[in-house]
Write a structure and sequence with these properties.
Length: about 290
């Protein structure tokens, strides 16, 4: 980030601290945001200021629409900044999944998904159709990192799913182990939504391709089957559509990685996941 943008970011953080009357205790910088932990009116809070316009720029609007149902509560927000209740201890589901507790972590993810019922619309949310335009952008380019037959199959499945959705609604859009934290009073809660309008089966896709440190875990056919069975059973979803969305989304995630400037090698875990799911589709949609 150049000095001008750093100055602007610092000004935005200071403006929100003053406007929202936050007594700051410490600040943490991440790749995508500045987090200021502190107090407001004797309540522990976290100020999150997004560095650049992108998926999380309007996350406050999306979180507010869920009205605290399964998500961290929003105290104030505007585009590019959000003031949140502070979750304590704030541990994520990642360590549970990585240390033999993947079945328990899957159950918690399903519970959070089930509690995340939006109470209000989020005008800033995209649709799954809009997110799927990345397939067209990639097809129009000359990048060859993602095998063309796999990309075409995923695009076909994604298009078929978009056209046959039932009861689309506001979804988190990026609900996985890193974005579910523990609060000692409220239990497990979702954070950092991207916000997308789609059917509930779409929501499961991000969880099936995480935690990313353990591709040998989430790409294993036994894990895929076990996780999908749990989500289907607890949320009363269509297992075939969960698998089909997960297949197409895994390829879409790899496309987004290419768009973000990352190298996607033939052994990429998301492509491996897509290749392992594809034989499981069994005609749910053509692939």
């Amino acid at each position: 980030m150049n000095s001008t943008s750093s100055t602007e970011l610092r000004r935005r953080v200071e403006d929100r601290i003053d406007a929202w009357r936050i007594c700051v205790e410490h600040v943490v910088e991440t790749e995508g945001s500045i987090l200021a932990f502190g107090q407001r009116d004797n309540q522990s809070v976290v100020l999150k200021v997004i560095r650049n316009r992108g998926d999380e720029w309007r996350s406050g609007d999306v979180l507010s629409a869920f009205e605290g149902n399964g998500v961290v509560r929003v105290l104030d927000h505007l585009y590019g900044a959000v003031l949140l209740e502070r979750l304590k201890p704030g541990d994520s589901l990642v360590s549970m999944a990585l240390t033999g507790g993947d079945e328990q972590a899957t159950g918690i993810l399903a519970d959070v998904m089930g509690r995340m019922s939006p109470g209000a619309p989020a005008s800033s949310a995209s649709t799954v159709q809009e997110w799927g335009r990345a397939f067209e952008r990639h097809a129009a380019g000359r990048d060859g990192q993602i095998p063309k037959p796999l990309r075409e199959a995923a695009q076909h499945v994604y298009s078929r799913l978009c056209a046959s959705q039932s009861t689309p609604r506001l979804l988190h859009g990026d609900l996985h182990h890193y974005n579910v934290l523990l609060d000692s009073e409220r239990g497990w809660l979702a954070i950092d939504p991207k916000g997308v309008i789609g059917e509930p089966e779409y929501e499961v896709g991000a969880a099936l391709r995480n935690p990313y440190e353990r591709p040998e875990l989430f790409t294993a056919p036994a894990t895929i089957t076990r996780r999908v069975d749990r989500f289907q059973r607890e949320l009363h979803l269509d297992a075939g559509r969960i698998l089909a969305w997960a297949f197409a989304q895994a390829v879409l995630a790899a496309i987004w990685a290419v768009e973000d400037g990352f190298i996607v090698r033939p052994d990429n875990a998301w492509l491996a996941l897509a290749n392992n799911i594809r034989p499981m589709l069994k005609g749910a949609v053509d692939a």
